[in-house]
Design goal:
Layout lengths: L11 H4 L2 E3 L3 H19 L3 H6 L2 E7 L1 H9 L1 H9 L9 H8 L5 E4 L5 E4 L4 E3 L11 E7 L6 E2 L2 E2 L28 E11 L2 E4 L17 H11 L3 H13 L3 H23 L15 H8 L4 H21 L3 E3 L9 H11 L5 H21 L4 H4 L5 H15 L4 H13 L17 H21 L9 H14 L12 H7 L1
Parallel strand pairs: 2-5
Antiparallel strand pairs: 1-11, 2-6, 3-4, 6-9, 7-8, 9-10
Helix pairs in contact: 2-5, 5-6, 9-11, 9-12, 9-13, 10-11, 11-12, 11-17, 12-15, 12-17, 13-15, 15-16, 15-17, 16-17, 16-18
This protein binds iron/sulfur cluster.
Iron/sulfur cluster binds next to helix 17.
């Protein structure tokens, strides 16, 4: 957690990314790490490649604590097999979770190294690495034992991993692994699907034409340039990425379409979600029942149905858009669907709104954090709610000050929200929490759009400072480890 004065150089599509659920830091990030490792391996000297026989993946921190329920193992294995997050079919993820369906890391000479869920080792939750969600991938000179004593090495129950039951030395290395390490890379999954590789140079992007590090500076840039919120973001985006405005617009529309599809799929799906909680989907029931309710109840019930639909799709490993994360990926789509179906806001307005949502996410990521493992759920559902509130206010044509106030109100009332997923699955409290976050976003926008903007006392930058401080002080058991709060009480009570 930090308060930085460097200008924000994130692209809209660094933040808004399509990928499989259920967790951007535990699924999309690790998958991207696996894919990066595959590329690095392919670039190794031929003699190193020739000696390669196996791969091992070691997970630390909350990746270890809740990696089972969050699908981290299959995600890394899919990435190693060459799968990109935005193109990974659920069937491939299921295959990567099956210990009998071997997959391969393919080297340039056409050699295949067998991989499967057995190559995942769950290391200590508390560790010495600089970021909570750390994974180390190693290329070994001998095959990793994909069977142990005739049993699947991965035959642990799904959900939270009991790390105390796993043998390992002080470095967190399991003695079960085979071979010497030929090449290794250490990755940090920093939330929202972002990854960093230890020692890698950060991608150099030019200084944007309208630099800002926080909301106050953004407002100043708008006032100086005379540009509207989304116009300014478009000028920065094209300068940072080299894309044409038409391509940026097309990509925004693609994200809008994926979010819409996610809601529609979720509204027509039924049955139990994956995992051993046995939680059944509710979106379709809420959507159906909304029809028979009185107007006010109907509107609220639809809102809930849309958020449940996207969050349930996420929990089932379906394709979602990180906004800002997978766990919180039901909030923005629910408000978007409401804007389209109930408020009649057209594509142009929704596109402008999505840009405002990204702005609020950028500033949160840059100055505080958006990972449950870093700041708790306030950084996921809280920031998602702030993004959605800003989106609605901007789409309806309100000023940048009102947009900021809407985001501030939504986040302020999520401060202190802990991350305590029951069983390590992104289901309880996550799915319901998306619905509550979406309704809060609507209410926050309603308040901001109907008060005197000048009388608003708390700025978005100030509420982010508060979130950062609270996140820093929050006990580790409330940061995506499934070791406290509901994750414990629901099981013990
Ligand atoms: S409780 Fe919040 S932060 Fe934690 S997994 Fe669920 S949605 Fe993500």
């Amino acid at each position: 957690m930090r308060y930085s004065r460097d200008p924000i150089t994130l692209s809209l599509f660094d933040l808004l990314k399509a990928g499989p659920g259920p967790s951007s830091s535990h699924t999309i990030g690790p998958m991207a790490a696996g894919a990066d490792f595959a590329r690095k391996t392919a670039a190794l000297a031929p003699e190193i490649q020739a000696g390669a026989g196996g791969v091992r993946v070691r997970l630390f921190g909350s990746l270890s604590a809740t990696g089972k329920g969050h699908g981290t193992g299959p995600a890394v294995v899919s990435g190693l097999a060459g799968c990109a997050p935005d193109a990974c079919a659920p069937a491939l993820l299921q295959r990567a979770a099956d210990p009998d369906a071997l997959m391969f890391l393919t080297l340039p000479q056409g050699r295949n190294i067998s991989i499967g869920p057995q190559i995942i080792e769950y290391g200590p939750v508390r560790h010495k690495h600089p970021f909570n969600n750390t994974l180390i991938i190693e290329l070994l000179d001998a095959p990793y034992p994909l069977r142990r004593n005739g049993q699947d090495a991965s035959a642990q129950p799904a959900g939270r991993t009991d790390c105390r039951s796993l043998p390992r030395d002080e470095s967190g290395r399991s003695p079960a692994g085979a071979g010497n390490v030929l090449f290794s890379a250490e990755y940090y999954s920093t939330g929202g699907g972002f990854i960093r590789r230890k020692g890698a140079k950060r991608e150099k992007r030019c200084r944007p034409p309208h630099p800002y590090a926080d909301m106050k500076e953004f407002r100043a840039r708008c006032a100086e340039s005379g540009l509207g919120l989304d116009e300014l973001l478009m000028e920065n985006e094209t300068a940072l990425t080299g894309k044409r405005p038409a391509d940026v617009t097309a990509e925004l529309d693609k994200m809008l379409a994926i979010m819409r599809d996610t809601v529609l799929r979720g509204c027509s799906a039924s049955g139990a979600l994956p995992g051993n909680i046995g939680l059944r989907r509710k979106a379709a029931v809420l959507h159906e029942r909304a029809r028979s309710l009185a107007p006010f109840d109907r509107a609220l019930c639809l809102f809930n149905a849309y958020a449940y639909a996207a969050a349930e799709e996420n929990a089932a490993g379906g394709l979602v858009v990180t906004a800002p994360t997978c766990g919180a990926s039901g909030v923005v789509p629910a408000v978007l669907m409401f804007m389209e179906e109930q408020l009649g806001l057209d594509l142009k307005a929704r596109r402008r709104g999505l840009a405002a949502a990204a702005l609020i996410g950028f500033i949160a990521k840059h100055n505080a954090g958006i990972a449950g493992a870093e700041v708790g759920c306030q950084g996921e559902i809280g920031v998602a709610s702030a993004m959605a509130a800003a989106m609605l206010a901007h789409a309806r044509g309100f000023s940048v000050q009102v947009v900021e106030n809407a985001a501030e109100i939504a986040l302020e009332h999520h401060l202190g929200l802990t991350c305590d997923p029951v069983g390590g699955y992104v289901q309880i409290p996550c799915i319901e929490r998306n619905a509550v976050g979406a309704v809060t976003a609507y209410n926050a926008a309603l308040i901001a759009c109907n008060e005197n903007p000048a009388s608003h006392k708390v700025s978005y930058d100030e509420v982010l400072r508060a979130m950062s401080e609270i996140g820093r002080d929050m006990n580790a058991k409330y940061k995506e480890t499934a070791a406290g709060g509901l994750a414990v009480c629901l099981v013990e009570c």
